[in-house]
Design a protein that fits this description.
16 strands, globular, Aminopeptidase, 12-stranded mixed beta sheet, about 400 residues, alpha+beta, binds coenzyme A, about 25% strand, single chain, 2 domains
Length: about 400
């Protein structure tokens, strides 16, 4: 994932859902030791959050992942969520972590790869013609970039058809309309400079959208194509429209993006029809896949025991370390006190080494000169990532110093 794509995802997820981003600063300026994004859907699934926690490889197995989970579960609860979903690479540290904290394994999405270098010349045209022979009464249209206004409601129909794809139980269907497509679809194309390609089949008799497939190419990884949505709407299934749209897309892509060598896609193992189309095109399994999982928020909060130092004692310790001076550090401590008025904002790490402090809005109001000075060891205020949300502050207890991260603003 290139940096622009990562930035767009971090601020609004794939589909513009609201969310929160929290970060544990590292000692190296500009780097994060750990972070998470908590997706908080606002249109459907309002009882759910979707969490992606990441700990720097050099800092793993120190309990930070559990701390992130606990903090995120608190934030999820504060936002009225009762279940946290996530996804990890199969058989990875993430999958082991999910099981260790008591998450329930859900759907597996197998990845498949189409190596365009292995596809014989003319193969996609041959497949397109074969599919077209079974798809009379349909017209194929295509566009590059975000959907033109006249196609917005047709694209919405395709998003709604995706509700029929296999998914874990408990997720509400997403209801898309033209406005939602305009505002929230194709975020990477609109905001991250990603090149987007769409191929649709329209039903001649009714003008309805019958099929849509989308592929994106990130200029930062130009040899890869990323398969997005493919959907055939219910009344039009069984006419080889999936193959027609995808074969047309591949033919177009090899001309429009000749440097693309591989296209990657993911499907639920149970999505037999889509897998059959993909295998006809030449896709092959590309393990590992993605393991979805979920955990109710309440047990997730309990995944890290809140033992040891109380919130008040921790705040006192911060105030003490300021040396009783008025001004900066004291202000910082009192602001922290206010932030900690909300129970659950201050936690002690399971291993006793990490103190995660939710600075709330308070830290955003501190002048820069007040950041990073607790009276024991001067530290630069490390502005690691500029997020729309406040950051976690991390204190390494044996150093007796506190590092701060600025909050507020937008991504830069
Ligand atoms: C998953 C991740 C966030 C865990 O971070 P972490 O700080 O190492 O996690 P913790 O130290 O709190 O580990 C908690 C428990 O998870 C389990 N666990 C974590 N990593 C593991 C691994 N590589 N192998 C086996 N078990 C593992 C262990 O039971 C561990 O407890 P223990 O160390 O006392 O045995 C980190 O590995 C990561 O960033 N992975 C990539 C992103 C990702 O997959 N995110 C998770 C999506 S669910």
């Amino acid at each position: 994932m290139s940096l622009p794509v990562f930035g767009v995802w971090l601020t609004g997820g794939w589909e513009g859902d609201p969310g929160e981003v929290w970060c544990v600063p590292s000692e190296s300026p500009g780097e994060a030791l750990a972070w998470y994004r908590l997706n908080l859907p606002d249109l459907e699934n309002k009882e759910r959050g979707f969490l992606i926690p990441v700990v720097h490889p050099t800092a793993r197995r120190n309990g930070i992942g559990r701390q992130l989970l606990r903090h995120a579960a608190d934030r999820a609860a504060a936002n009225g969520r009762t279940v946290l979903g996530s996804v990890a690479v199969q058989d990875s540290a993430g999958a082991a972590f999910a099981m260790a904290v008591g998450a329930k394994a859900g759907l597996v999405e197998a990845r498949r790869l189409l190596d365009l270098r292995k596809v014989p010349a003319g193969e996609f045209a041959r497949l397109r013609e074969r599919a077209a022979a079974a798809a009379t009464g349909y017209t194929v249209v295509s566009w590059a970039g975000p959907a033109p206004e006249e196609y917005l409601s047709l694209v919405a129909a395709a998003f709604n058809a995706m509700n029929d794809a296999p998914s874990d139980e408990g997720w509400e269907e997403e209801i898309w309309d033209a406005d939602r497509v305009r505002d929230r679809a194709s975020r990477l194309v609109r905001l991250a400079g990603v090149r987007g390609y769409s191929v649709a089949a329209l039903h001649d008799a009714t003008g309805e959208l019958a099929a849509l497939t989308q592929v994106e190419v990130d200029p930062g990884r130009p040899d890869w194509g990323y398969q997005g949505l493919t959907a055939v709407t219910r009344p039009h299934r069984g006419h080889r429209l999936g193959l027609l749209a995808k074969a047309t897309m591949m033919e177009w892509l090899t001309t429009a993006e000749p440097q693309v060598e591989r296209v990657v896609t993911g499907n639920a193992a149970s999505n037999q029809h889509m897998i059959a189309v993909n295998e006809t095109l030449g896709y092959e399994l590309y393990p590992p896949g993605w393991q979805f999982c979920e955990i109710p928020v309440k047990p997730a909060v309990r995944a890290v025991p809140a033992e040891g130092m109380t919130d008040t004692a921790a705040i006192d310790a911060l105030a003490d370390s300021s040396g009783g001076q008025s001004g900066g550090p004291t202000t910082a401590a009192s602001n922290l006190s206010r932030a900690a008025d909300n129970p659950g904002q201050l936690r002690r790490g399971a291993a006793g080494r990490w103190l995660l402090v939710d600075t709330g809005a308070a830290i955003a109001h501190l002048p820069a000169a007040h950041l990073g000075d607790t009276g024991c060891q001067r530290r630069q205020a490390g502005v690691l990532l500029r997020a729309r949300r406040p950051f976690i502050r991390a204190e390494r207890r044996h150093h007796h110093c506190v590092r701060h991260a600025a909050a507020g603003g937008t991504w830069t």
